[in-house]
Amino acid sequence: MKFTTFLHNGHARLGVVDGDQLIDLQAAQPQVPSDLRAALAAGVDLAAAAEAAIASTAPRLPLAGQKFAPLVPEPGKIICLGLNYFDHAKEGGREKPEYPWFFFRGATSLVAHGAPGILPKVSGKFDYEAELALVIGRRVPRHVSQEDAPGYVFGYTCFNDMSVRDYQKRTPQWTIGKNFDGTGGFGPVLVTSDELPLAAAGLKIQGRLNGEVMQSANTTDMIWGVAETISLLSDVLTLEPGDVIVMGTPAGVGQARTPPVWMKAGDTFEVEIERIGTLVNPIRAED
């Protein structure tokens, strides 16, 4: 099953994808909240609701040409991993970390599929990072095992962890360079866990700048996979429905190239993940 979040009259609405069309899920199933996080928190059986909507005569909208919102417009938490691919750690001059380099993003940093990533006025060192992201479907108990952890994931999507590198390096913590407004591309569709390999393993991931392949890897190349990441986080905090975990980027980022490659206004960056889809964000200068 595939879900998306689209804009209708300026408001974010949860939709279920049916081929090249989508259905406003709440319009077809009024008991379903119009927000993915709220629907998950309420314990709604979204698979059953989506199946009923697809089987109904509910109006369809063409998927092409829709304006989208970030898949989860206001996640409770957005937890990101740095240096989670061996080759990316190496290109940054580091060995394998002993523990994941976790950092947080805020909701105001998120942008939808098709919406511009915003090149900030204060920096020209604007980099791309193609990543797999997951959405937690139900409350994760503390100290969950790696064996059980994948069962708490509702689905997977694409993310572009756009990074302002000079700000990222101003402090030992990466937060400031990872939270500029309009720098977290998120979407366009969420594919439910049951339609993908366990823990989204073995999927090709690619990042393209203006059509040129800059990053190409496989999710099996991650140092910490989905199951271990969730288990480690559950030792520390409670993961709740609608929380987002962004799983890190492979080698090929702009700052590691000679000379460095920075995104500029007019560029387009695409994140494609096998069996999930393609996230596209044009780059625009801050007003």
Helix- and strand-based class?
alpha+beta
Name of the CATH architecture of the largest domain = Alpha-Beta Complex
Stated plainly, the CATH topology of the largest domain is called: Fumarylacetoacetate hydrolase, domain 2
SS summary, helix count: 6
Query: How many distinct domains?
Result: 2
Coarse shape? globular
By CATH, the superfamily of the largest domain comes out as Fumarylacetoacetase-like, C-terminal domain
**Uncertain stretches:** none
Percent in strands: 25-35%
Oligomer: single chain
- The percent of residues in helical segments reads 10-25%
Radius of gyration over C-alpha positions, nearest whole angstrom: 18 Å
Mind summarizing the main beta sheet? 11 strands, mixed
CATH class of the largest domain: Alpha Beta
Query: What is the N-to-C succession of helices and strands?
Result: EEEHHHEEHEEEEEEEHEEEHEEE
Task: Tell me, rounded to a whole number, the average pLDDT.
Answer: 96
User: How many strands in all?
Assistant: 18
What can you tell me about this protein's structure?
The chain is built from 6 helices and 18 strands. It is an alpha+beta fold and 287 residues long. Strands 1, 2, 3, 4, 5, 6, 7, 10, 11, 13 and 16 form an 11-stranded mixed beta sheet that branches. The chain has a 5-stranded mixed beta sheet with strand order 8-18-17-14-15, with no helix packed on it. Strands 9-12 form a two-stranded antiparallel ribbon. The longest helix is centred in the N-terminal third of the chain and has 10 residues. The chain is globular. The model has no long low-confidence stretch (mean pLDDT 96).
